[in-house]
Amino acid sequence: MLRSGSGSPVNLILFEPAEINRPLAAGDPRVRHVLAVLHRAAGDAFDAGIINGPRGKARLRPRADGDYDCEFTPTAEPPPAAPIALVIGLPRPQTARDILRDATTLGVQALHFVATEKGDPNYASSALWRSGEWRRHVVIGAEQAFCTRLPEVTHGRSLAEVVAALMPGEARFALDNYEAAQPLARSEIDAPRVTLAIGAERGWSTPERALLRHHGFTFAHLGERVLRTETACIAAITLVRAALGVA
Question: Domain Ribosomal RNA small subunit methyltransferase E methyltransferase, which positions (predicted)?
């Protein structure tokens, strides 16, 4: 759950709800982080939170068997997620890791990684998705943001399945460098929730564009420069947050 390889302090250490009531092994990465990186002694307070629950202060108490009990005192409930969902053409695993982490840090409500016609089908069978590793990157993003709330994450469904299940009453934009007539920055958003569709590295196919239009998506672009998928996600989220007035 900690930032891999850096050894630098995370902003918030997160625990699953059930972990607060059972011992933590001395070798747990979070225990080592508190003692060795944050330089807290046993019994000292540190910032912690329950995933999708309250934030607060925690203390590690040594046990006779060498493990630790974790005492947690809640102080604040998590704020609501930003009313933004992403539908993303399944990218290569390293790109997906970056999106999972950074989009979570920006507080999106949902991330749907979908199979697309121009995407590489092998990406869906990578260890990132098969092993459940993806969730670790979401947790890292939340820890960075000093927030306990995690977005909904789905993967492996088709674009058609995901867009057919979207909520009504929202604004929908699909990023496209070829057929978009307006920049996202100047698009009018008059709905309380936004879904952004971002294609795989080779973009949308003609049938996918037709499908997105059928489901109410407006095509928009981020300017003349061609961006990496992970960069486009962050730029688009930032613009929509500003348009929605999300602090």
Answer: 82-240
